[in-house]
Design brief:
With 362 residues, the protein is α/β, with parallel strands linked by helices. The protein has a single domain, classed as Rossmann fold (3-Layer(aba) Sandwich), CATH 3.40.50.12710. Helices cover 35% and strands 23% of the residues. It is built from twelve helices and 16 strands. Strands 2, 3, 4, 5, 10, 14, 15 and 16 form an eight-stranded mixed sheet that branches. Strands 1, 6, 7, 8 and 9 form a five-stranded antiparallel sheet that branches. Strand 3, helix 6 and strand 4 form a beta-alpha-beta unit. Helix 4 packs across helix 5, helix 7 packs across helix 8 and helix 10 packs antiparallel against helix 11. The protein is globular, with a radius of gyration of 21 Å. The termini are far apart.
């Protein structure tokens, strides 16, 4: 059983031949009317995944404090574009802005810009963030020029990824084609050596590798922007610290793993973020750009005081609420949970002091 989008992709392949995994992901997630991220709901118990801002207000509060600190380090400029990529329900920024109301001049300096393609989520964001009069965009490159503060939480993992396999004669690209019935989507290998081979790591026969051109392109655009106009970006996602071989594509529907090619448009597709590649792309694009990290989410949040924030919340909470706060804290920072699975990378201009959260205080 497939979907209308699956049938359309199958017809495209029948007419034009196999497509890359990245092309399949782009259609499955971003098709203008049938893509997964055009649908709703996709978050929480009614969707396919739960993000850190939905787990606890502490996450957004800590990130808000970090952003306010970066604004101060930039010299407290006005006209700052506060940007979130893929803001979900708007929970992260709502918590961040509530927590920073006491930072003199900060809110007055901000213009809120949200990069979101899901209209239902835009409506939710409008309700959550109405006092801040947000503007919406389909792409980062639509954000007006000016100083930048950007946060991207679980955004880069959903960008389209190419996948490769190390055959006896070299790296070949994994493609999406049709099975023998002419209708069912299936994986296949391209016959020749991929032109991307020079960008792939050394590996033995049978190994796999992934490359996300979209992620590197976006990181480069962010780096170019903060280098030219000043600013900082904070990227939080799951992935690996450095580039290397491996396969990480996954598909989730109704909170469980499913086949990657099953029911396109109704399934969440993602891959591990290559933080090393993001840092390299960002720094190579801007003449005055620095990258910090990645560090684990647990270390980052702990260095910024999330345990102390949890204690403050528990001090005026009921016993049931205290247990919920402890459970949320554990999920956000504990090894083996989001604390080590997720990583944090900062990209910023070279005119500001180094950011907090990326080394232990001295």
């Amino acid at each position: 059983m497939t979907t209308e989008l699956g049938r359309r992709i199958a017809r495209r392949i029948a007419l034009g031949g196999p497509i890359s995994v990245a092309e399949f992901m782009a259609e499955a997630l971003g098709h203008p009317t049938l893509g997964y991220y055009r649908r709703a709901p996709i978050l929480g118990a009614a969707g396919d995944f739960v993000t850190a801002p939905e787990i606890s207000q502490m996450f957004g509060e800590i990130l808000g404090a970090w952003l306010a600190d970066r604004w101060q380090a930039m010299g407290r400029p006005g006209g700052v574009r506060l940007v979130e990529l893929g803001p979900g329900r708007g929970t992260l920024l709502a918590d961040a802005l509530r927590a920073t109301r006491g930072v003199a001049g900060f809110h007055a300096a901000l213009e809120l810009h949200l990069v979101e393609i899901n209209q239902t989520l835009r409506d939710r964001q409008a309700a959550s963030l109405a006092p801040y009069r947000p503007s919406w965009h389909e792409r980062f490159d639509e954000i007006p020029a000016g100083p930048l503060l950007l946060v991207a939480n679980e955004f880069f993992d959903a960008l389209p990824v190419r996948q490769f396999h190390r055959a006896p004669h070299g790296w070949v690209e994994r493609m999406v084609g049709l099975a023998s019935d002419g209708e069912t989507l299936s994986f296949a290998l391209a016959p020749g050596i991929t032109p991307f081979a020079r960008l792939l790591p050394e590996a033995s026969e049978g190994a796999n590798a992934e490359l996300c051109e979209a992620a590197c392109g976006l990181a480069a655009a962010i780096g170019e922007r903060v280098g030219a106009d000043g600013g900082w970006a904070l990227i939080v996602d799951y992935g690996r610290a450095a580039s290397g071989p491996g396969a990480s594509l996954q598909a989730v529907r109704d909170h469980r793993g499913v086949g990657f090619l099953e029911r396109p448009g109704e399934t969440d597709l993602s891959a591990d973020v290559d933080f090393g590649a993001l840092a390299k792309a960002a720094c190579s694009a801007g003449h005055r750009v620095r990258a910090f990290g990645p560090v684990t989410q647990g270390d980052f949040l702990a260095r910024l005081g999330i345990r102390q924030r949890a204690d403050a919340l528990k001090a005026r909470a009921s016993e049931q609420q205290r247990h919920a706060i402890d459970a949320a804290l554990e999920r956000l920072i504990a090894p083996g949970q989001m604390g080590t699975v997720f990583r944090v990378l900062a990209v910023g201009d070279d005119r500001s002091a180094a950011p907090a959260g990326f080394s232990d205080p001295t």
